[in-house]
Design goal:
With about 220 residues, this protein is of the alpha/beta class. It has one domain: Vaccinia Virus protein VP39 (Rossmann fold, 3-Layer(aba) Sandwich), CATH 3.40.50.150. Helices cover about 40% and strands about 20% of the residues. It is built from eight helices and seven strands, in the order αααβαβαβαβαβαββ. It has a seven-stranded mixed beta sheet with strand order 3-2-1-4-5-7-6, sandwiched between helices. β2 (about 85-90), α5 and β3 (about 115) form a beta-alpha-beta unit. The chain is globular, with a radius of gyration of 17 Å.
Length: about 220
């Protein structure tokens, strides 16, 4: 029997009241982003806090973020890393990346951020092939264009050390993954991605219905 609490708006507010610890800068960044046309691309503050707790729990020092947007997840990550930690942040947009880095600098954690603007596939390939960083990262967070999720995931596995963790956002895609009438390229890509990971014996896997669906895969 499955028992699951329906997370209505009232209960969501309660969870925020008893759990959320958001800095002034995180709150400001969230408010500024909310005014943008693509504001729904931003993760929730609860998800940002969860990522921070997760990073501290696994003792992460070297991380990669694929898809930065205005930087809420990046700021949450940089705040959670130790002072000598590093997050390689990849995004295609110069404008959004600049905003993200500005908030990290204002929070005093800009020195932890290695921001690279351009095609994330090329940036990941550079980390692996030119910089020789295979097997040297603790954590990878993927939250970018859905059509390239599997490519990003494959690079993530190469970059991670054994026992390293990759987290993938939006894997339930607002429920569209189980709606057969949804046949757009993003939804189809996510269905294929989820199906491939189910049988990937290189990782230990868990998909949880948190936020818009999160996949966690630990490299064996």
């Amino acid at each position: 029997m499955r028992i699951q609490v329906e997370l209505n708006e009232k209960l969501q507010d309660y969870v925020a009241d008893v759990s959320l610890r958001e800095s002034d800068l995180q709150r400001e960044l969230r408010s500024v982003t909310a005014k943008l046309p693509l504001h729904l691309m931003q993760i929730s503050p609860e998800q940002g806090q969860f990522l921070g707790v997760l990073l501290r729990a696994i003792g992460a020092k070297r991380t990669v973020e694929v898809g930065v947007f205005t930087g809420y997840s990046l700021l949450s990550t940089a705040l959670a890393l130790p002072d000598d930690g590093r997050v390689v942040a990849l995004d295609i947009s110069e404008e959004w990346s600049a905003m993200a880095l500005d908030y990290c600098k204002r929070a005093g954690v800009g020195h932890k951020v290695d921001l690279r603007v351009g095609d994330a596939r090329a940036s990941l390939a550079a980390l692996l092939e030119q910089e020789g960083e295979a097997g040297s990262y603790d954590f990878v967070f993927i939250d970018a264009d859905k059509e390239n999720y599997y490519s990003y995931y494959e690079s993530a596995l190469e970059l991670l050390r054994p026992g390293g963790l990759v987290a993938v956002d939006n894997v339930l895609w607002h429920g569209a993954v189980v709606d057969e009438s949804a046949q757009d390229s993003e939804t189809r890509a996510l269905r294929e991605f989820n199906a491939e990971l189910h049988y990937d014996e290189r990782v230990d896997l868990s998909v949880i219905p948190f936020a818009d669906g999160l996949t966690f895969a630990v490299k064996r």
